[in-house]
Amino acid sequence: MAALHTMLGGSLVGFLFLLISGMNSGKAYGLAERESRSIARINKRGPYLGIVIPNTFEMNPLLQSPSFAPDPKLPQLDILGKRFRIGRIGDKNVILVMTGLSMLNAGVTTQLLLTLFRVEGVVHYGIAGNANPDLQIGDVTIPRYWAHGGLWNWQRFGDGPDDELPLESSGDYRREFGYLNISDYNIAGSRGKGKSKESNYLNNVWYQPEEIFPVNGVPEERQHAFWVPVDGNYLAVSKKLQGLKLGSCVNGTTCLPRPATVVAVERGISANIFVDNRAYREFLRSKFNVTPIDMETAAIALICLQQRTPFIALRSLSDLAGGSSASSNEASVFGSLAAQNAVDAVIRFVALLGS
Ligand SMILES: *[C@@H]1O[C@H](CO)[C@@H](O)[C@H](O)[C@H]1NC(C)=O
Ligand SMILES: *[C@@H]1O[C@H](CO)[C@@H](O)[C@H](O)[C@H]1NC(C)=O
User: Which tens digit of pLDDT belongs to each residue from 103-112?
Assistant: First the structure.
């Protein structure tokens, strides 16, 4: 869409109207005529910043914030099972949309947002598990790169790093992004100390890049992407968030050891996996140098990469994935604080973009 925006300039609105309501009354999208007209009306007032949010727990603090002003005439539009909320944050027109859990929902929702609406960029926020023991619950992380860590080639027992993977020669899979050696995590005997050096039938897992088909590429001619960078301009603006005052206490009584901060980090990773496991968290940290671990961001990053739409994600840390001590998952105590901190940082970020 970005390329189309530039190409068509002023006639974009007309083009979208044609696209959505012209041909076959928009039935190609499964849209009713009333919906198509609403979309055209909304787009006329664009462009918008798309704000993509995993769930209500993370969205509600933004909806309740005085900084978010819903559009007085058309505050929301329900389309194809999704609710798009129209409004403003400061001087910026925004469209909020909730994805639901995990990569499929996140990708589909983001694509729908970019297909239907005139969106100049996407800001994603939420809470995340933490893989970086130097940071704390409530800190808002802004990674430079995101990867999907759930596309695997699971190597057969007996093969190792020197053996070709199936379909490697045709370019489908590669031995580039390291591997998880399951037997590194064996426990020797029931009373044993340290690791067993024995092998494990689960052998090795190799992480794979996604096949992508950019909007300005050749259809059916795949490219590959593993580390997806966020937008350089958005990243530069986000640097101004450092020093932002964030909440550090729940109910004013239960406080974090130090005030929460906004932190620029190198990388984050997403997959359809809820990581509440210390060994896997430590593997992700040492292998990929990631800080936030979540279940949506990379899908949104991959869609924005393919649609050539600027993208950034702010993820606040809710717990040290897999626990730091014997205590239970800290997300239950500090989750709401983490969600509020992410919202506070996003509101400030959008204000900075609009200024
Ligand atoms: C996997 O780890 C085990 C145990 O640490 C080791 O003996 C084995 O050589 C490793 N295999 C590969 C393929 O690296
Ligand atoms: C904060 O207050 C709410 C409502 O009274 C309560 O349900 C919750 O357990 C409290 N949380 C903490 C960490 O004290």
Answer: 999 999 999 9
